[in-house]
Amino acid sequence: MEPIRLTPIGHVESPLTDRASAPKQGDEGAPDAWLVMRDAVLAGLDGIAVGDVLLVLTWLDRARRDVLSVHPRGDRSRPAQGVFGTRSPDRPNPIGLHRVEVAEIARDRIRVRHLEALDGTPVLDLKPLLSADADER
């Protein structure tokens, strides 16, 4: 199989710098953070507005890639299970999936709520969260 090559479209600016103390999910107390986008992709932000809910895909660059089994949420009292049945960042391809709300847009920066990604995390893509009755974008 041919290797897949990804190019980040930006990075995260966040007060979260330590994985051990970061929330495991965005709705568990994650602070506001900024998505800082590369100039080359700014035209792709057209149509995003304050209040929108986005799915942010990140590359969890500090995750282990050799893990196939984990204790859910790091709780050793729970039985280990396969990593693909969990939201663990440690996995063969550490792609993060984050549901966020747009709080502010400032040229090449988008302030979002509920992002548990660490400062400096590469951003791979943004996608709008569509409801069942939403217009197809």
Describe the overall structure.
This protein has 137 residues and is mostly beta strands. The chain has a domain at 10-63 and 96-128: Beta Barrel (Elongation Factor Tu (Ef-tu), domain 3), CATH 2.40.30.70. 0% of the residues lie in helices and 32% in strands. The protein has no helices and 8 strands. It has strands at 10-13, 33-37, 53-59, 69-70, 81-82, 95-106, 109-113, 122-128. The chain has a 6-stranded antiparallel beta barrel. The chain is globular and about 45 Å long. The chain starts with 9 loop residues before the first strand and ends in a 9-residue tail after the last strand.
Please outline the helices and strands.
Elements: E1 10-13, E2 33-37, E3 53-59, E4 69-70, E5 81-82, E6 95-106, E7 109-113, E8 122-128
Antiparallel strand pairs: 1-2, 1-8, 2-7, 3-6, 3-8, 4-5, 6-7
Outline of the structure:
The protein is built from no helices and eight strands.
Q: For the CA atoms, what is the radius of gyration? A: 16 Å
Helix and strand content put the structural class at: mainly beta
Give the end-to-end Cα distance, rounded to a whole number of Å: 32 Å
Write down the overall geometry. globular
For this structure, the CATH topology of the domain at 10-63 and 96-128 is Elongation Factor Tu (Ef-tu), domain 3
Percentage of helical residues?
A: under 10%
CATH architecture of the domain at 10-63 and 96-128: Beta Barrel
- SSE ordering: EEEEEEEE
Instruction: Write down the oligomeric state.
Output: single chain
- CATH class of the domain at 10-63 and 96-128, named Mainly Beta
Strand portion, in percent?
Answer: 25-35%
Please state the average pLDDT score: 88
Uncertain spans, ≥5 residues at pLDDT below 50?
Answer: none
Q: Count of DSSP helices? A: 0
* Largest sheet entry: 6 strands, antiparallel, barrel
Total strand count, please?
Answer: 8
How do the strands line up in the largest sheet? 1-2-7-6-3-8
CATH superfamily of the domain at 10-63 and 96-128: YaeB-like
